[in-house]
Amino acid sequence: MDFWEITREALNVALATSGHNDPGLRTALLEAYRKLDAYPDVPAALVGYRALGIRTVLFSNATPPMLTTALAAAGLTGLVDRIFTADDQGIYKPSPRVYAAVTESLGVTPADVIFHSSNAWDAAGAAAFGWRVLWINRAGRPREYPWVPMTEVVDLHAALVTTRGNAASDR
Questions:
Q1: With helix as H, strand as E and coil as C, how does the chain read?
Q2: Domain boundaries of the chain, sorted by first residue
Q3: Would you state the pLDDT for residue 163?
Q4: pLDDT tens digits for 90-104?
Q5: What fold does the segment set 42-170 form as a domain?
């Protein structure tokens, strides 16, 4: 099942569980999900990474049409160097196979990747695979996986500063 189908099914369950079975609400929520805004710090961070010579890859479980729509809606088209979707692999994150497919496709080692995610489960999966991880914890939530090696930052400005420091020390 592709990720859009999974998203629709999850919404159906959430609506049924909460007693909201209004088809109009379902349609409105699905449309809103397709057109989410980016956080205000995202464009500047992507431009900043490009200025540092760091390739940026959008890596998601979502389908290619979902990602193309999301980038356009958020005003980020052209700010990422590559899109990699787990959908092409027929398996979802956090399977190690999908993280391996990314590193192989990019021609890098796991240690070369600095993975950014606000999803703790995704950050943990990437760290378990050997990627360096920045967990974007905008809400200041407690760590779900305190044993997983990752650097916690509050936003992408802090992520860019941290990455800039890592890039300088890697030279």
A1: CCHHHHHHHHHHHHHHHHCCCCHHHHHHHHHHHHCCCCCCCHHHHHHHHHHCCCCCEEEECCCHHHHHHHHHHHCCCCCCCEEEEHHHHCCCCCCHHHHHHHHHHHCCCHHHCEEEECCHHHHHHHHHHCCEEEEECCCCCCCCCCCCCCEEECCHHHHHHHHHHHHHHHC
A2: 3-34, 42-170
A3: 81
A4: 999 999 999 999 999
A5: Rossmann fold (3.40.50)
